[in-house]
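Why do we care about 3D structure at all? Because function follows from shape, and shape follows, mostly, from sequence. That is the central idea of this module. The next example makes it concrete: a single protein chain, its amino acid sequence, and then its structure expressed as tokens.
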Amino acid sequence: MQKLRVGVIGVGHLGQHHARLYATLPTSTLIGVTDQDSKRGQLIADKHRVRFYSEMAALLREVDAVSIAVPTSAHHAVAKRCLDAGVHVLVEKPITVTLAEATELIEAARACGRVLQVGHIERFNPAIRAVRSQINRPGFIECHRLSPFGERGTDVDVVLDLMIHDLDMVLSFHPGAVEEVRAAGVPVLSSTIDIANARIAFASGCVANFTASRVSTMRMRKLRLFQRDSYLSVDYQARQAAILRRQLGTNQRPEIFMEPAKTTDDEPLKLELEAFLHAIVSKTPPVVTGEDGAAALALAHQVLESIGSFVQRHSVEGE
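And the structure:
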């Protein structure tokens, strides 16, 4: 079994778990970690008995692949350095802040023949994996992603921080080209948009409604998908899903029958890292490509543009 030498760049809230899993996976050897906070970096390195690298360049000379879990604003610069060094990259979502930056990373990965995977972790959630094969031309999708406020992630707005998970997921159902985006949002506790809602219509006739908030009193990660003769309910947080089907019951009248989906207890991040390592070894495209990450980012920017128009329109009306 081929074991890849891996490192983690940024070992805060998310990166620490990348390090934890790489240290235990049979297909990887955790070489070391690096972080701008040297105390934090040394702590995580000591925990896994690996080296803390004060300089990223030194780490890149020792590894085949890295996970990048730095603030979004630094994704492009850090990932570009890694790809230029000939290292395979898994970068947390969103791929970058701008589409131009995303395009540059995609081209850099293609030029050096390295894997560029984007960390849209919900693709690996056992709940969605259990029902994905049942999804066929959805007509209406509703997504809710709510969280209490925290300082982490506030370097970008809630659309890039939270909603982008659901934008990527809906795009993975292949609903066709985007025909209309209508969105609204407001800042509440930060200087950027903290709560947002978007209604997106696709060429297939599918309409998706997205709500994302980081100023809620509770956490919610749910998707509801309606299609002809069935309704799928997914709770990402509980890793549970159910399929509700329309069938003929007594007296030949249509009734709804619920069928709980068979899910597993697999940790989504573990599945994501395993898929990343497999793509490298097998020389196959990753589950979530750079192009996928760019597509989700492009749609997120369409949502932000619509929010900007909404805010401007209502500020003018209020004068």
